[in-house]
Amino acid sequence: MTAETRSTPPTTARTGAISRICGSIRGSFRAKLFTVTATMIVAISTIFAVFFITHHLESEEEKLVTEGRLLARLLANHARVALFAGNVEQLREIADGAMATPEALSVTIFDRDNHPLVTVTRPADGSAEPAPAQETASAGKPGLRRIGRRLEFSETVIGSTRATRESDLFFETGGSGGALSTLGSVRVVMDEEPINRRLRAMIVTTCLAAALFLLAGCGAVYGVIRGVTHPLLHLAEGVRAVEAGGSATIPVESNDEIGELAASFNRMVEAIWQRRREREEANLRIAELNARLEERVRERTAQLEEANRELESFNYSASHDLRAPLMRLNGFCQALEEECGDTLSRECRDYLRRIRGVSGQMERVIAAMSTLFRVQRRELALRELDLSAMIRAIAATLAEGEPAREVEVTVEPDVMVCADTELLWVAMENLVGNAWKFTARTERGRISFGRAWRDGETVCYLRDNGAGFNMAYAGKLFQPFQRLHRPDEFPGTGVGLAIVHRVVSRHGGRIWLESEEGRGTTCYFSLPPCPPPPS
Amino acid sequence: MTTRILHILAFLLLWGFPAFAAEVVVVQGERMAPFEAALHGFEATAEVRSVERFVLAELRGADVVRSVREAHPRVVLAIGREALARVKDIREIPIVYVMVAAPPSTAAHGNVTGITMGVPAERYLAFAHADLAAHRVGLLFDPGRTGAMVREARQAAQRQGVTLVTREVRAPRQVLQQLAALKGKVDVLWLLPDPTVVTAETLEAIALFSQENRVPVMAFAAKYLQHGALAAFEVDPADMGRQAGRMARRIMNGTPPEEVPDEAPARITLRINGAVARNLGITRDLRGE
């Protein structure tokens, strides 16, 4: 123990102990309940004890006063004849009789001149013995006087003189006939000490009874509180165990509400564990299904990759193998035209022109298919690029190809996107090409490019006022070889929008069309922003 | 205040209207039930048209004698000893008294007659001798008050063959001493209407004496039965009033008053306290009336 610890004043230690006790009471429901109930029992016991003792004291004092007054009055009445006759012996007998009252301390009888005739006092041993008359003082005024612990009762002894009227001797005249005269007086001194003794005994008894009641009450209350809180403690432990993930069954100790609560808790824990087991089983089944699904996905992916490889191989072979005969066909057509051009009839030259046209169409289809597959297979090389510039360049190229057309092209500047340049060029070339193509029959064609806010994100749009289409067929437009116009109306392979869709999808964006027949089409597409440069 | 106003009114009436003479003037000491009963009894039998009444207790200081004289009644009815003493000086008008135990000797004039309230000594002594088998009858008296009655009693005792043991007392306190002196010497104690002997304290002592010595007490009024007396001869005020009324009627009819002697009460009732009789061990059948 350090010197500082030793020098801690006892008051601080007491305060700390009190604080600990208060803390333990505040922290325990049982202690709190017991403290409140015990305090109430103590308060009620104290109030009842004080009330009982006070009431008893008042009652005893009132009884003593009544007894003293009655004794003095009776004594005055009994002593009347003896006083009248001056019979001291008889007065002494009467006084001795009055001393039979335990609380009577002394009895004195005075004559009409206020001289004590008889005085009987109770000595310390309790026996009443007559005392010399000259020891006593004179009689006081009638009534009650309190002198220390003694109560002094004085009563005047009244006598009647002779009747003054003859009629008073014969008839009841209401006492008006005889005048009253004082024969003497009596004085009774009552001692409060017996009352005080009884009161002390009563206080001791009451305190003992209150203490016993307190002990019994506290014991009973503690038992009741323990009976209430013990299951609650079990419940709290069970809740903590469940909270920690364990399982707990608490004992059901009674059939009352608390017992019902404990039983409900046990049922709840059982239900929780049942659900946990079911969930674990379900998780196991899900894991098995996932594993099976992954296995199947892997199988399917492998099959798909194999099919893709076969398809690519077929595509490559088809493109390559079809393009070579097509070139030879074109070569033969050219040779035929050069060798036999002059000999051929007009009809044969027309056939030859048609063969070359179909051959060119087939070549474009093969090129588009090749492009579609190239778009599908190309590794993305993303970089930030100026889409506005790209649109303007493509539009300029188209305008150079058809200088006769007057198309108003509006491009919002500095629209920057992050994309693969080659793929995005192919896509925009198809989009702008479509806009250029479908505005061919519009008297004043307009193509505009810019950014708009749609569905919570910034998207790019390319709008034209061309032929437009029926939106009921919008879902087919992104499928290869799907066309809404005849080739003689608007030529094309039917693969362009499929290429655009593939390019945007490969960049993680989305694309959709909004159109109205005869009023133009707007193509909206989004491209993810470029990732921030590494710091 | 009310009394003074009444005095003034009475004085004025008595002074200013003497011409309104009443047939009978009634003088009574006070308004008490026995006196009123006696007056009613008197009025019932006297057959008088007009009665004028003077109540002495309400006319203090007034000259009642003069007022009576100025009323010129045919008869004066004095109810009670005080009323008789007040009008005793009137000699020219017949006076009939009632409710007087023993009329004073100075009132024994020719114009005074009436009904004495006292029961004849023979009745007491006969009861003591016959019913209580007593031979010695004790008597306490103040000679100045009931000496005449004692003399009459002695004569009656001689006639009855009863020994009368008398003790004189001059003050109530002496009653107790004389009672002690009578211990063992009397068989019956006879109470006379003597105010020296009969007081509240002496009554207690007499009752104690009676109880301790088993000596029955004969009293002169029923009110003493509750104080421990065994027997009492009770008179009826109303009947005495009727008796006086008849006497007054005789006088008013022309009989000179000196020819109308005093009368004892016509109706005397013996009252017995049964509890006292039982406590004294008197087994004899005492029949009260």
Q: Helix and strand string of chain A, N-terminal first?
A: HHHHEEEEEHEHHHEHEEHEEHEE
- CATH homologous superfamily (4th level) name of the largest domain in chain B: Response regulator
Name the CATH superfamily classification of the largest domain in chain A: PAS domain
Instruction: Estimate the global geometry of chain A from the Cα principal axes.
Output: rod-shaped
Q: Do you know the CATH topology of the largest domain in chain B?
A: Rossmann fold
**Quaternary:** heterodimer
The count of β-strands of chain B is: 11
Q: Count up the helices of chain A.
A: 11
Largest sheet of chain B: 6 strands, mixed
Task: Please give a handful of descriptors for the protein shown.
heterodimer, A: 535 residues, alpha+beta, Beta-Lactamase, Heat Shock Protein 90, 3 domains, six-stranded antiparallel sheet, five-stranded mixed sheet, 57% helix, B: 289 residues, alpha/beta, Rossmann fold, six-stranded mixed sheet, elongated
What are the SSEs and their pairings?
The complex is a heterodimer of chains A (535) and B (289).
Chain A: H1 3-6, H2 10-27, H3 29-85, H4 88-98, E1 104-111, E2 116-121, E3 129-131, E4 143-147, E5 150-160, H5 166-170, E6 180-191, H6 193-243, H7 257-340, H8 346-377, E7 382-386, H9 387-401, E8 407-411, E9 416-420, H10 421-438, E10 445-454, E11 457-464, H11 496-506, E12 511-516, E13 520-525
Parallel strand pairs in A: 8-10
Antiparallel strand pairs in A: 1-2, 1-6, 2-3, 4-5, 5-6, 7-9, 10-11, 11-13, 12-13
Helix pairs in contact in A: 2-3, 3-4, 3-6, 6-7, 7-8, 8-11, 9-10, 10-11
Chain B: H1 2-16, E1 24-28, H2 33-46, E2 51-55, H3 64-71, E3 75-79, H4 81-87, E4 95-100, E5 112-116, H5 121-131, E6 136-141, H6 143-160, E7 163-168, H7 172-182, E8 188-190, H8 200-213, E9 217-219, E10 231-235, H9 237-252, E11 268-272, H10 274-279
Parallel strand pairs in B: 1-2, 1-3, 3-4, 4-5, 6-7, 6-8, 8-9, 9-10
Antiparallel strand pairs in B: 10-11
Helix pairs in contact in B: 2-9, 5-6, 7-8
